[in-house]
Amino acid sequence: MKLFIIGGGIAGLSAAYYATKKLPDVQITLLESSNRWGGKITTDRVPFGGGQFIIEGGPDTFLATKPYATALCKELGLGERLHGTNPNKKNTYVLHRNRLLPLPDGLAMMIPTNVEAILKTQLVSWFGKARMGLDFLLPPHSPNGDESLGAFVSRRLGREAYENLIEPLMSGVYAGDGDALSLASTFPYLRDLELKYGSLARGALQMRKQNVQANGHLPLQGSRSAFLTPTMGLAEIVEALIENLKSKVNLRLNTSVSRISNINSRYLVELEDGSNLDADTVILATPAFISGSLLASFDPTLASALQSIPYASTATISLAYKQSDLPRELDGYGYIIPRREGRRALAATWTSTKFPHRAPEGCVLIRVFVGRAGEELPSPNGRGDRGEGDLLALAKEELNLTLGITAEPILSRVFMWDKAMPQYNLGHPEILKRIDAALEKHPGLALAGNGYRGIGIPDCIRSGELAVERVLKFSSSKVRTFECANL
Ligand SMILES: Cc1cc2nc3c(=O)[nH]c(=O)nc-3n(C[C@H](O)[C@H](O)[C@H](O)COP(=O)(O)OP(=O)(O)OC[C@H]3O[C@@H](n4cnc5c(N)ncnc54)[C@H](O)[C@@H]3O)c2cc1C
């Protein structure tokens, strides 16, 4: 049996890892179009003044309450290298009318639960606070079918609380538009809280008190951080995976797949260089729109469902400064920017406070996020770059406006992620049903990656494992057919 996995991001690498464990007799090949492994995971380690900056270009942590990433790290021998965010300076701020105001204490599952903290916050007006209180009184509503995240939270807590507090937290995860995102596909447990406890705040509080499991999340023990990462950055996971796979899997970088077709119930994987590979089973761990284009001539129905999942483009701009050049202390993890503030940036992480070892002594590292659904990133501008210069200028302007930083950074890095964040918009559950129905006809074909049932690293890892289980079912049935034929 020959298995081809296409796409060497975390989903494809995880699929390869679980394939080596669950499919010992299968010949496995992993094909990646670019010249490096990891996809959206990339860490720059830059020596500087006797120390180093550790700069994440894409994700910087994973959620610890979903078990799959922690479990994989432990299996790879990285368990001891995982650490949480700085427990000593946990402030997060929200930009509100050009001022940074602290996020109120007591957010549980992103839902405000501390009445005193809400009464004190200046992020919501008194009218808005009174409207939030209605969450305790309003009966659960049963709309037919799905609701947008924005409509749901506004219905329970009021529009003001949604726009000033919840939208930047929740929509930010997807770089999405909360009024378009599907509640069922993004935060389904919120609906469960409403139905079970009659109020979001009461439900979130109960869940926290009982430390119970919600939607596949593990309870957090004690004060352990909800987010984890290896000491030297998330690329450690990619490096450990490659080390583990290199003797068991045919690993091919710079190998772009251009088409998948099906001949006599086998798959033909066509490469950009014109050569063909013959496979029994294929796992597509590429973004959904790319998987769709690869399958366009093979199954147009499946391809069109895959291509109907929209993706938003985003960018991160990391800037390092001398501590002495900063007009204020960076006493927290950073700040988030509600859409209604009208800024191009979404958030700024104060990386060297969140992870103190990620900048050398006397330096600070800040990471600005730009780009959300419905907005384009800058394009090539004739000045010899892809738009990085414009993004750098935009990030510097953001830090000047909000933090008053006028000094030039001592170092900067821009990472542009074109069509990187899948948007689980209203209708996403129906798209998934269409995809599943189409896949029924192709038992040797499986999909993995962030486009379907979870955008975070733990979900992508899980998607790789589930894709292998699908292939396992198929290969077992093929072996049985072969044995019967030989009886
Ligand atoms: C800026 C940013 C910040 C984020 N922050 C977090 C975070 O803090 N925590 C978190 O959990 N998640 C975060 N995410 C989300 C998470 O990083 C991604 O969802 C996840 O890494 C996607 O993994 P993947 O394997 O599905 O896809 P990708 O990483 O996109 O991998 C797909 C791979 O397929 C390859 N490929 C494409 N076409 C072809 C082809 N034709 N042939 C062969 N190979 C091909 C690509 O080169 C790529 O390497 C963030 C994402 C971004 C962009």
* Uncertain parts: none
The name of the CATH superfamily of the largest domain reads FAD/NAD(P)-binding domain
Kindly report how far apart the N and C termini lie: 20 Å
Helix content: 25-40%
CATH topology label of the largest domain: FAD/NAD(P)-binding domain
Residue share in β-strands: 15-25%
Oligomer: single chain
What structural class do the secondary elements suggest?
Answer: alpha+beta
Number of domain modules? 3
Question: What is the annotated CATH architecture of the largest domain?
Answer: 3-Layer(bba) Sandwich
Instruction: Specify the number of helices.
Output: 16
CATH class of the largest domain: Alpha Beta
- The total beta strand count reads 22
Bound molecules: flavin-adenine dinucleotide
> Which term fits the overall shape?
globular
Radius of gyration: 23 Å
Strand order of the largest sheet: 8-7-18-19-20-17-21
Q: Mean of residue pLDDT?
A: 92
Summarize the biggest pleated sheet.
7 strands, mixed
